[in-house]
């Protein structure tokens, strides 16, 4: 699948006086990350210079900020990161920060000078931030490792820590280099989420599989980028390795019921099931380091058993 044309990994909006509000916001890559800006309702606005009070309302943004921003400058993170079933950062680390559910009232009470969110923000929250002149960054969902690393560089510059962004990107690149397979023969594999949700070609998980020595078999089932694969089709043409959330902490990660199906037990000689926590599919950024480590470890174990 062709890569989509380069698109912004964030949008920035900031309020202007009511009399200055004009046309809808334009979106583009900033010509200089150090002076990142967009046209907001017809008026050019700049990001705060080295923001001192940052509020995140998205768990993936949480994971980025704890790596990139000064701890003292993170006023709050999303409530998802205080839930061990949803967090993308170590729970002990997350609990050091105040959490917010992301309502306009909560955010405004924290007096932030920068809010970091996903690409979808409640309209009433966005309007309230605009009225009060609070800058808002919307992070897109990276569809490739390159997009994720670009996003890291941008956000690191915005929060005033470009060196931390470079260091994180170096760690990600090193993780991929370490995970590179010695054997160039790709192993047929599939990532299966609860309910049969499967990432297909053109997705970030698809790239992770390819770069760690696997062939994503989703295309053999005629699946789209993200699609549902019935168990019957999986059984008819099983991959050599199936990545699924096999559980561990029963409270935090309930085992996928599909994994206990009798038909899969009968196919144990043809298909190996390997644990791939669902949280590794939720975010890019620093999560990529653990994700490729898990995938490459499964590949090495399979090679050893062969």
Question: Can you put this structure into words, describing what you see?
Answer:
The protein is α/β, with parallel strands linked by helices and 306 residues long. Helices cover 32% and strands 18% of the residues. It is built from ten helices and 14 strands. It has helices spanning 59-68, 91-94, 104-109, 123-131, 145-158, 162-179, 204-211, 231-236, 262-266, 287-305; strands spanning 10-13, 37-40, 43-46, 54-56, 74-78, 99-100, 114-118, 135-139, 187-191, 197-199, 214-216, 226-228, 241-244, 272-275. A six-stranded mixed sheet has the order 1-8-7-4-5-6, sandwiched between helices. The chain has a four-stranded parallel sheet with strand order 11-9-13-14, covered by helices on one side. Strand 13 (241-244), helix 9 (262-266) and strand 14 form a beta-alpha-beta unit. Helix 6 packs parallel to helix 10. The longest helix is centred in the last third of the chain and has 19 residues, at 287-305. The chain starts with 9 loop residues before the first strand and ends with a helix. Residues 1-45 have low confidence and may be disordered.
**Strands across the major sheet, in which order?**
1-8-7-4-5-6
Report the C-alpha radius of gyration, rounded. 21 Å
Distance between the first and last residues' Cα: 32 Å
How many distinct beta strands? 14
Short key terms for the protein model shown above:
306 residues, alpha/beta, 6-stranded mixed beta sheet, 4-stranded parallel beta sheet, 18% strand, disordered N terminus
List the helices and strands and how they pair.
Blueprint: E1 10-13, E2 37-40, E3 43-46, E4 54-56, H1 59-68, E5 74-78, H2 91-94, E6 99-100, H3 104-109, E7 114-118, H4 123-131, E8 135-139, H5 145-158, H6 162-179, E9 187-191, E10 197-199, H7 204-211, E11 214-216, E12 226-228, H8 231-236, E13 241-244, H9 262-266, E14 272-275, H10 287-305
Parallel strand pairs: 4-5, 4-7, 5-6, 7-8, 9-11, 9-13, 13-14
Antiparallel strand pairs: 1-8, 2-3, 10-12
């Amino acid at each position: 699948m062709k890569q989509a044309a380069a698109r912004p990994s964030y949008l920035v909006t900031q309020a202007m006086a009511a009399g200055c509000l004009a046309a809808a916001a334009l979106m583009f890559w900033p010509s200089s990350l150090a002076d990142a800006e967009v046209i907001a309702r017809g008026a050019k606005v700049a990001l705060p210079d080295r923001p001192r009070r940052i509020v995140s309302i998205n768990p993936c943004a949480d994971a980025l900020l704890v790596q990139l921003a000064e701890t003292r400058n993170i006023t709050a993170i999303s409530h998802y990161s205080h839930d061990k079933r949803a967090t993308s950062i170590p729970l002990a680390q997350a609990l050091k920060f105040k959490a917010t559910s992301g309502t306009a009232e909560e955010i405004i009470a924290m007096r932030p000078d920068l809010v970091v969110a996903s690409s979808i923000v409640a309209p009433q929250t966005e309007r309230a931030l605009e009225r009060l002149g609070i800058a808002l960054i919307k992070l897109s969902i990276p569809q490739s490792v390159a997009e994720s690393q670009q996003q890291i560089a941008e956000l690191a510059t915005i929060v005033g820590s470009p060196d931390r962004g470079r260091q994180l990107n170096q760690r990600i690149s090193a993780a991929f280099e370490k995970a590179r397979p010695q054997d160039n023969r790709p192993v047929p594999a599939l990532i299966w989420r609860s309910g049969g949700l499967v990432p297909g070609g053109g997705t970030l998980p698809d790239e992770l599989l390819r770069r760690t020595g696997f062939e994503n078999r989703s295309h053999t089932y005629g699946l789209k980028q993200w699609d549902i694969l019935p168990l019957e089709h999986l059984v008819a043409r099983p991959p050599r390795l199936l990545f699924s959330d096999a559980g561990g902490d029963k409270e935090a990660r309930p085992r996928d019921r599909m994994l206990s199906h009798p038909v899969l037990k009968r196919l144990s000689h043809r298909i190996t099931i390997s644990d791939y926590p669902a949280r590794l599919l939720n975010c890019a950024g620093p999560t990529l380091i653990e994700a490729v480590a898990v995938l490459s470890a499964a590949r090495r174990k399979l090679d050893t058993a062969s």
